[in-house]
Write a structure and sequence with these properties.
The structure holds 2 protein chains of 2 kinds.
Chain A: H1 2-8, E1 66-69, H2 73-77, H3 84-93, E2 96-99, H4 102-112, E3 121-126, H5 133-146, E4 150-154, H6 158-161, E5 168-169, E6 177-178, H7 180-193, H8 195-200, E7 207-208, E8 214-215, H9 221-230, H10 235-250, E9 257-262, H11 287-296, E10 303-308, H12 324-335, E11 339-343, H13 349-361, H14 373-383, H15 387-394
Parallel strand pairs in A: 3-10, 3-11, 4-9, 9-10
Antiparallel strand pairs in A: 1-2, 5-6, 7-8
Chain B: E1 36-38, E2 47-49, H1 61-64, H2 71-92, H3 101-111, H4 128-131, H5 156-182, E3 197-199, H6 202-209, H7 215-230, H8 234-241, E4 244-246, E5 260-261, E6 267-275, E7 278-285, E8 292-294, E9 297-298, H9 299-302, H10 306-318, E10 326-332, H11 336-351, H12 357-366
Parallel strand pairs in B: 8-10
Antiparallel strand pairs in B: 1-2, 3-4, 5-6, 6-7, 7-10, 8-9
Classes of the chains: A alpha/beta, B alpha+beta.
Subcellular location (chain A): Mitochondrion
Keywords (chain A): Mitochondrion, Ribonucleoprotein, Ribosomal protein, Transit peptide
Pfam family, one (chain A): DAP3
């Protein structure tokens, strides 16, 4: 209890950049983030700030509260992962606080109970636009990172099928196309996120990059990653190799593997990329997509797969589509077939209240009516308790 | 006589006044729509309005002078109108004796449907007194001597009215003095007559007196009448009421929807709203939690723009009932903004049934219950749009 009080008092001072009154170990940990909104805390005294760093926290009583992620964790766990608006908020408030919500808690509970001998279970987060799928995914990723899992995190698969420059014919397979830029970016983030594993994992095959360069069996995975980063032309193949190795080796039990993909419906949708003869490509023809599809299959064990659907960046899907059936299409649905769907919905009244409290504490809402009941009712009506909308509305106040 | 085209078996045809009222302005003002030509020749009289614009030439000077209608002429018009009314009643298969002006209007609208927007431009058949402006009969006799004793003041009716009013004032004062002397005077305040009525405006008074007035004359007259009212005499009330016009309060014309009950016993109320070309129907339930469904879709998804949702919020927020009602709406037509406006109107009207009279009046004053009359303006030829002209090129 005392811990909490001491944390509350200097809260106001924390808004100064880089001025942590508490020491490092006390820094908040979990990131129960939601897409845009923070759910206000139920506990009036402690405001919306949890003192827990553990993302799993204490379960149900954490629901509705905010978790803080230590700022030094952010670059390592999420080198590219956070949504744009949320990272702006992090920069503004100088802290990364996510709200714990039921879908994320459910997922964490499932992950805790996974039986690593069974094939990887696939969890699909779906819901309306702006309800918090991506941030729930981030919550799970942080949780696993804290538990020392190996994270394969694709922040937005839509970026890989849209407007990519520099498509090359794959050297490995004539039918497919490489995307050096995206692959290189991803490798960089992967490296930052999983530094410690790169030296531990050893590859099990020899890979020939070209006539002169090759990586032998037994070398650490880090070398493959380096190769991909230095020789950008081989980046896509490097990605493919990394994924294959991870998949085959996760069964051994040396590490736990978490595959987190956001916007997974891009893998089975359509692309806007064109071949040389200006005809549209199908996603299978992209090597990155191909390798990711293989990753998402449940023919391996020793980890879990958490996916989030997204209509916002998707191509050629109607605006109202939010169900897995609609967004994934028949092909995607069949490919993912035995999965656990998790619905992410709008805020409940308590969560809404908690979010408003969080904003008020951070002095984000400057309007004089924001404190009053009428003001809150107005906000509730206008945003319909949708986290995304609420965040956008509060930005003006 | 050439028979008219209407096959009704009657020889004389009723007269239609096409082109609305023949309002000859008394002012020799800017527009010189002067001449009303009477074409008599075929027993078929049509009045046509001939506009004479432009510079007055010698030929048109006669047309500038106001056309005078003789008393005989007016009498003849009245007779013809009555006969025509009976013919019309026969044609419509109704009883000529009880054929009122509303029936005439309906019959004409049926026989001569017009799509013109300007109501006064449509065919109309009314009593000649409403069509022809009131004119003064000749004011002097054969010997040239005027009839009225105040003729040489120039405004004989006005001054005679003032004279009459002042006479009444003096009488009332005399009576009051007598009552006070007898001690029977009692202070009565009867202001109920004044509420809900207003004085005639200057134009209306001019019309009544068939004479031009100046502003000062009018003000003087009203002051005199008000002074008369302060004396609270019963006899003069009738005289003063002639110069007052009642003002109906708008809100009383409101139709408040009845509250209906559905199977589960939930109270709800339905009403419609329109805006531009969007039509909406809203069903507001009395008890709920503030959920709104539009065409079966949640309002957050149907109106992604905040502005539209603010429009939906307005009626509830105004009455401070934000989270208390559930609503289901159907809307079609128009664009996103007009659909939002239509739903807003429908919701406001539906809420009237759950709310007190006073709040209904507040809503009306806030403009929630008025249908927005703005529609898309027509594009005119010679212009690019309704207002935008083509790019002006110097050569």
């Amino acid at each position: 209890m005392l811990k909490r009080v001491t944390r509350l008092v200097p809260r106001a001072c924390q808004l100064d950049p880089g001025h942590f009154l508490h020491g490092g170990p006390q820094a908040p940990q979990s990131l129960a983030a939601r897409l845009d909104d923070q759910v206000p805390d139920e506990n009036p005294r402690a405001g919306s700030h949890p003192s827990e760093d553990d993302p799993a926290g204490a379960g149900e009583q954490r629901e509705g509260r905010h978790y803080r992620i230590p700022l030094q964790d952010l670059p390592t766990v999420f080198p590219h992962g956070l949504p744009r608006r949320f990272s702006l908020q992090v920069r503004t408030f100088n802290e990364a606080c996510l709200m714990v919500r039921r879908p994320a808690l459910e997922l964490l509970r499932h992950l805790d109970d996974t039986n690593f001998a069974h094939p990887a279970v696939r969890y699909v987060l779906y819901g309306e636009k702006g309800t918090g799928k991506t941030l729930s995914l981030c919550h799970v990723v942080h949780f696993c990172a804290k538990r020392d899992w190996l994270i394969v995190h694709v922040p937005d698969a839509h970026l890989w099928v849209k407007s990519s420059r520099g498509l090359l014919r794959s050297a490995y397979s004539r039918r497919r196309f490489d995307q050096p830029v995206e692959a290189a970016n991803w490798l960089k983030s992967f490296k930052t996120a999983n530094e410690r594993f790169l030296s531990q994992i050893k590859i099990q095959e020899t890979y020939m990059w070209n006539k002169r360069e090759s990586t032998e069996k037994g070398r650490p995975l880090g070398e493959v990653v380096e190769q991909g980063l230095t020789r950008v032309k081989n980046a896509t193949d490097a990605v493919g190799i990394v994924l294959k190795e991870l998949k085959s080796q996760s069964c051994s039990g040396a590490f736990r593997l978490l595959v987190a993909v956001d916007g997974v419906n891009a893998l089975w949708g359509r692309t806007t990329l064109k071949r040389e003869d200006k005809s549209l490509m199908a996603p299978e023809e992209l090597a990155l997509v191909h390798s990711l599809r293989k990753m998402v299959r449940n023919d391996w064990h020793g980890g879990a797969v958490v996916l989030a659907l997204s209509q916002t960046g998707s191509l050629f899907t109607p605006r109202m589509a939010c169900l897995p059936q609609e967004l994934l299409g028949k092909e995607g649905f069949d490919a993912l077939d035995p999965f656990v769907p998790i619905l992410v919905s709008n805020y409940s009244p308590e969560e809404f209240e908690s979010c408003i409290q969080y904003y008020l504490e951070n002095s984000w809402l400057q309007h004089e009516k924001a404190h009053t009941e009428e003001g809150k009712k107005e906000l509730l009506f206008l945003s319909d308790a949708n986290p995304g909308q609420l965040e956008r509305l509060c930005a003006y106040l | 006589m050439a028979t008219p085209c209407v096959s009704c078996g009657a020889a004389a045809f009723y007269r239609l006044f096409l082109g609305g009222r023949v309002s000859l302005t008394r002012r020799q003002g800017v527009w010189k729509a002067g001449a009303v030509e009477l074409q008599t020749g075929t027993g078929f009289q049509i009045l046509r309005l001939r506009h004479t614009t432009g510079v007055t030439t010698k030929k048109n000077v006669a047309a500038l002078r106001r056309e005078t209608y003789t008393v005989d002429f007016i009498k003849k018009q009245i007779e013809e109108f009555n006969i025509g009314k009976r013919h019309l009643a026969n044609m419509m298969g109704e009883d000529p004796e009880t054929f009122t002006q509303e029936d005439i209007d309906r019959a004409i609208a049926y026989l001569f449907p017009s799509g013109l927007f300007e109501k006064q431009a449509r065919p109309v058949m009314k009593h000649p007194e409403q069509i022809f402006p009131k004119q003064r009969a000749i004011q002097w006799g054969e010997d040239g001597r005027p009839f009225h004793f105040l003729f040489y003041t120039g405004k004989q009716s006005y001054y005679s009215l003032m004279h009459e009013a002042y006479g009444k004032l003096l009488e009332a004062e005399k009576r009051q003095n007598q009552l006070q002397a007898k001690g029977l005077f009692s202070e009565k305040t009867e202001t109920k007559d004044l509420i809900g009525s207003r004085w005639l405006i200057k134009e209306e008074l001019e019309e009544m007196l068939v004479e031009k007035l100046s502003d000062q004359d009018y003000a003087q007259f009203i002051r005199l009448l008000e002074r008369l009212l302060t004396l609270h005499c019963g006899a003069e009330e009738e005289f003063v009421q002639r110069f007052r016009k009642s003002v109906t309060i708008q809100s009383k014309k409101h139709l408040i929807e009845p509250v209906q009950y559905d199977e589960q016993g939930m109270a709800f109320s339905t009403s419609e709203g329109k805006r531009k070309s969007a039509k909406a129907e809203a069903v507001v339930y009395e008890h709920g939690s503030g959920r709104i469904k539009v065409n079966g879709i949640d309002y957050l998804l149907y109106f992604p723009v905040t502005q539209d949702r603010e429009q939906l919020m307005f009626p509830f927020h105004f009455l401070d009932r934000l989270g208390k009602h559930d609503t289901t709406c159907t809307v079609s037509g128009g664009g996103r903004s007009s659909q939002a406006g239509a739903i807003r109107l429908a919701v406001a009207r539906a809420l009237c049934s759950f709310v007190t009279e006073e709040e209904v009046e507040w809503m009306r004053q806030a403009g929630l219950l008025t249908a927005d009359p703005r529609v898309r303006e027509r594009k005119k030829p010679g212009q690019e749009g309704a207002r935008r002209k083509f790019t002006w090129k110097k050569r």
